[in-house]
Amino acid sequence: MSLSADFFKVKGSLPPPFMPLRLLPTLCLVFAVNGLLPGIALGESPAQPSGQPKTIANATPGDQRRAFELPTYVHRPLPYTLQTAQDWQTVGMNALIAEDYVNSLQAFNKAVDLSAGQDPEILEQRGWVHYLQERYETAIADLNQAATLYQEQSQTPNYRNVRRMQLYIETQAERTDTAS
Questions:
Q1: Which domains are delineated in the chain?
Q2: Closest to 59 measured CA to CA, from 40, 77, 76, 75
Q3: pLDDT, tens digit (0-9, with 9 covering 90-100), for 1-59
Q4: Residue 47, SS3?
Q5: b/e map of 9-44 (b: 16 or more CB within 10 Å)?
């Protein structure tokens, strides 16, 4: 089943918070489960303002220069209407939390279209979904575009983080190629 605006329209008898996706009833899910990301060293950095620790990954256990923060996805209520890039970003994050990568990718694609490809956070999140689906070249392209936008917007910490994430994915792609 594919996502479409019609799929999410609230029908007359359904209450406004209608959630068509099977969503996990969690407040936050961090993609740093050892089984999900094989081959990376995980650690925690100081707590974020929200009180949740940031999860750090790097390509080699001792190389802190290559460490990057893994994307985090917080479950949010679905918007009543799906008209903005942020609305579709919310759908994409919720689908990703439910490990529904197909619908997550479709929602992020719609968000990128609505933002005219100018929101680096959405591109970063879509790139991570591509990585989780082992579509390394597409993931790297999205992360490269996100890094360019972060740099243009003078968001240096986010730029560096995305570049490190991109380097990690390139390393994983090389490992996959040599293992084949």
A1: 29-73+82-179 (1.25.40.10)
A2: 40
A3: 444 444 444 334 333 444 333 333 322 232 332 233 333 333 333 333 344 334 455 54
A4: strand
A5: eeeeeeeeeeeebebeeeeebbbbeeeebeebeeee
Please report the beta strands in the chain, taking only residues with DSSP state E, as ranges in sequence order: 28-30, 41-47, 53-58, 68-69, 72-74
Asked if 82 and 91 count as a contact pair (C-beta separation under 8 A), the reply is yes
> Which tokens in the block code for residue 81?
């209407």
The predicted model scores a pTM of 0.65
Query: What is the dihedral sign for C-alpha 175, 160, 41, 99?
Result: negative
Residues 48/42, Cβ–Cβ less than 8 Å: no
Rounded CA separation 79/2 (Å): 18
How many residues in total does the chain contain? 180
A 10 A CB-CB count for 145 gives 19
